[in-house]
Amino acid sequence: MLTIGQLAAYAGVTVRAVRHYHQIGLLPEPERDASGYRRYGATAAVSLIKIRTLADAGVPLSQISRLLEADASAFAEAIRTIDNHLRAEIERLETSRRHIAQLTAGDSLALPPEVAAYLDRLRSIGASERIVEAERDGWILVTARWPDRIVEWMPGKVAELDDPKVARLYRVLSEIFDDDVEDDPRLAEAADIMACLAEQAYAAGEVIVGEEADDDLPHDLLDALAVESDPRVERLRELMRERGWSGWNRMERLAEPPA
Amino acid sequence: MLTIGQLAAYAGVTVRAVRHYHQIGLLPEPERDASGYRRYGATAAVSLIKIRTLADAGVPLSQISRLLEADASAFAEAIRTIDNHLRAEIERLETSRRHIAQLTAGDSLALPPEVAAYLDRLRSIGASERIVEAERDGWILVTARWPDRIVEWMPGKVAELDDPKVARLYRVLSEIFDDDVEDDPRLAEAADIMACLAEQAYAAGEVIVGEEADDDLPHDLLDALAVESDPRVERLRELMRERGWSGWNRMERLAEPPA
DNA sequence: GCTTGACCTTGACGCTGCGTCAACCCTCCA
DNA sequence: TGGAGGGTTGACGCAGCGTCAAGGTCAAGC
């Protein structure tokens, strides 16, 4: 007669595992000796080894008792089912590995490489790290909403950066937000450039990137994001309104430009 | 300002997941509105999307906050660690799949194919299903103890089955144990054959398979298994003692054969 | 006969990442 | 004004044990 420790050692499992199998009814509780110890016979050892064999093969404990009683065809069928689960799980993990391989750098987190390239381009024309991060967060929101369309938009956005006025704007914004001046005079300069660019786009009849008309939420979020990242954005929007433009991501000409 | 449901929908997660992230401190609790509802800004949406991106890549939630604050090299290092975990997990599951592929039939459960072949041979010489199952369980115990030596023992065991006396023995035992007669006269016949076989083995100086001398446990278990599967085995052992042999798996000649 | 260490007992929490009630409150629309 | 469809906290459940806690028991050496 074996004690629980001897039984567990023979089958190559832990004592805790054996007790767990008792708890869930997978292995019947044996008789106790005078002092209350569990005493096991050879049959229990055989059962435990069978259980471990199936468990090691990835069979859920809840199915093992059924499996041990099943006939050959039911057994084979159950094995197929379990193997499919295993395959699916492996596939899931391999997908994770592919995802994780994409996450090498900080910028590409939650962003396609095209956007990362755009952000690098932004850096190269003089945008500060703060500005780049703000842009990155904005594109994270956009990517979450239109993951498939993002790639087709990026070439146009990258091209925009070739405009010296755009480069100038980003540099001015970088200076503003890197300092901590409450009412920076350069805000007006930035507003002037932005108004000029808006005029340009309006004249060219350009449809602003991301305009889907039926879904304002992402645009509202982008606006909110800008304000949350720095309250002076609110001041900039005021200045833009004075120049006849409302909005932030999507500029709209006000009905009646002020005198 | 977003409600929790809107936020969750935007990031493509469940409301419950968002609350969970609050609980574990992964996503900061936002302000509440007058009625106690959580109200989220755009920053929260960005954070949540970053969290999901890492979580979908298989990063444990407990490490995500560290990862989001890490610099490029620490980030890369952490990613490597996580990728190693993923690889190990995939390896584990693939090992499971290989194991499970071996479990096609009932006999091969916890047994190498050589033993399954031996059992088939047993069937072919007329052993009943009960006897074969008892043999199988015995071999499960042996395999658990000496998994590597089992293969080298099997050819000898299979060869033994060519002996017509052995075949006769198994058929007699099959008849005995398939019926439910308390004091079967065929028990004596079986004992006669066994004694004869033991004498044969003794004369040939054969070392009984599995004799390791320093480890009695498996043999004791095999003896116990036989008795547990049918109490009439005890009667058989008595009859063997009368014929000058003790033991069951390992027969030993008694010092003084009774008259 | 007493100590010591190894083993046994039950009970309960911890881990991972949420899903899923329960019981109740808030908002919005017809 | 009522009902549908949000939101709130609290709690259990899941798989498969690991790991205390707080003891009782056994075998061996002194």
Give an account of the 3D structure:
The first copy, chain A, is mainly alpha-helical and 259 residues long. In chain A, 65% of the residues lie in helices and 2% in strands. Chain A has 12 helices and 2 strands; from the N terminus they run ααααααααααααββ. The first copy, chain A, has a two-stranded antiparallel ribbon. In chain A, strand 1 and strand 2 (252-253) form a beta hairpin. In chain A, helix 10 crosses helix 12. The longest helix of chain A is centred in the middle third of the chain and has 31 residues, at 72-102. The N and C termini of chain A lie far apart (102 Å). In chain A, 26% of the residues are buried. The interface between A and B is large, with 54 and 55 residues. The first copy, chain A, binds a DNA duplex (30 and 30 nucleotides) through residues 3-5, 14-17, 19-20, 24, 35-38, 55, 60-62.
